[in-house]
Specification:
uroporphyrinogen decarboxylase activity, Uroporphyrinogen_deCOase, UROD/MetE-like_sf, 2 domains
Length: 115
């Protein structure tokens, strides 16, 4: 069995000692990554279209690998599950619901996505 070199996150999650505390940098970190910015520029699609494209989402999720990180966060948005529920959105520049949910009838009309 091979030894995992980047096991810091796994070790701390299992209450084992680590040489330093792993850091989780959250939300919109891509804006400061030149490779991410270039990928977005070259692709040209709207952000929500990138979330829906598995190939590009994987590529973006793996960009931090060059930094020697020991974990990865999937490139997605917290609003992505709204699309299969029937409540689409787009960014302009922030998230905008295409059909805002304002009544209980609209809440009941939302579909539960398959897991």
């Amino acid at each position: 069995m091979s030894v995992l070199k980047n096991d810091r996150l796994l070790r701390i999650l299992n209450h084992l000692p680590v040489d330093r505390v792993p850091v989780w940098i959250m939300r919109q970190a891509g804006r400061t990554d030149p490779q991410y910015c270039q990928l977005r520029k070259n692709d040209g699609r709207a952000l929500e279209k990138l979330f829906a494209d598995p190939e590009i989402a994987i590529k973006i999720s793996l960009l931090p690998k060059r930094l020697g990180v020991d974990a990865s966060i999937m490139f997605q948005d917290i609003l992505t599950p709204l699309i299969p529920m029937g409540a689409g959105f787009h960014f302009d520049p922030g998230p905008v619901l295409e059909r805002p949910v304002r009544t209980m009838a609209q809440v009941k009309a939302l579909r539960l996505p398959e897991p």
